[in-house]
Design a protein that fits this description.
Belongs to the guanylate kinase family. The chain is α/β, with parallel strands linked by helices. The chain has a single domain, classed as P-loop containing nucleotide triphosphate hydrolases (Rossmann fold), CATH 3.40.50.300. Helix content is about 40%, strand content about 20%. Strands 6-1-7-8 form a four-stranded parallel beta sheet. A four-stranded mixed beta sheet has the order 3-2-5-4, sandwiched between helices. Helix 6 packs antiparallel against helix 7. The protein starts with a helix and ends with a helix. Bound molecules: adenosine-5'-triphosphate and the ligand Nc1nc2c(ncn2[C@@H]2O[C@H](COP(=O)(O)O)[C@@H](O)[C@H]2O)c(=O)[nH]1. Adenosine-5'-triphosphate (ATP) binds next to helix 2 and helix 6. The ligand Nc1nc2c(ncn2[C@@H]2O[C@H](COP(=O)(O)O)[C@@H](O)[C@H]2O)c(=O)[nH]1 binds next to strand 4, strand 5 and helix 5.
């Protein structure tokens, strides 16, 4: 278990597209002796969760399981890189075929994570990284108990403003993030590891150390 952490020279792994749906493993059960862990990156919107998830994935060789969403791509967002962008009908089909291990409906659209992609990551790497909101955290905790490790990232409202303005994000996105900030940051106590994402390299190092200490 956690061999990938101790020898983090593995090559980056990216989630593959689903071609043939297969039944997911019973959550939390490990095939054989290896314990399977879901590393959840959560926190306040715009705190750099996706950025950290991708870098952690590359650094550790643990797949980042990309969610499916029906929301429209923002400027600069790419299908297969930021999300799997799909239509409402495609999302409903995934739900009807019970292919999502968790899903949420938010103002802008629906979001969900494929059972098959998560299961494949867990079987092949004994671990997977996901980025979800608080509802997603609760679902993963129900499914995987303490094997769903909650890492909560936050930044100040001022940092969110600076980062999003620098990226040229639409003003309604920035306004929404700032409006939702107080509702999101209250969940910081419901986490296993809490940190302010000020500097990316330092954040990554702290997360890696934290994960090692859980062995
Ligand atoms: N440590 C950092 N320092 C400065 N800017 C950062 C840092 N981490 C991420 N950013 C920038 O902040 C913005 C938000 O990052 P990212 O999309 O990873 O956050 P997120 O929490 O996943 O956001 P969202 O809620 O939109 O999913 C991006 O413009 C990103 O380039
Ligand atoms: N429970 C889930 N939450 C998800 C999933 N994919 C993304 N998210 C979270 O939703 C909000 C909105 O994201 P945005 O990119 O539209 O700003 C944010 O908190 C995401 O982390 C998912 O599959 N399940």
């Amino acid at each position: 278990m956690w061999k990938w952490l101790k020898s983090s020279k593995t090559s980056p792994v990216s989630p593959e597209p689903v071609n043939t749906p297969e039944p997911a493993n019973t959550p939390g059960e490990a095939g054989g002796e290896a314990k399977q862990q879901v590393i959840i990156i959560t926190g306040t919107s715009g705190s750099g969760r996706k950025d950290i998830a991708k870098r952690l994935s590359s650094g550790l060789g643990v797949p980042y399981v990309l969610p499916y969403t029906t929301r429209a791509p923002r400027p600069g967002e790419q299908d297969g890189e930021h999300y799997h962008f799909i239509t409402d009908a495609e999302f409903r089909a995934l739900q009807e075929k019970d292919e999502l291990c968790e899903s949420v409906r938010l103002e802008r659209g629906s979001y969900g994570i494929s059972k098959h992609e998560l299961d494949r990551a867990l079987q092949q790497h004994q671990a997977a990284i996901v980025v979800v909101n608080h509802e997603g955290v609760q679902t993963f905790r129900k499914l995987y108990g303490e094997n769903a490790v909650r890492i909560f990232l936050y930044v100040t409202k001022e940092d969110i403003r600076l980062r999003l303005e620098r990226e040229g994000a639409p003003s309604e996105v920035l306004e929404e993030y700032l409006r939702n900030y107080s509702d999101q940051v209250i969940y910081k106590r419901e986490s296993d590891f809490l940190l302010q994402n000020i500097e990316t390299a330092a954040t990554l190092e702290k997360i890696k150390l934290f994960l090692q200490e859980r062995i």
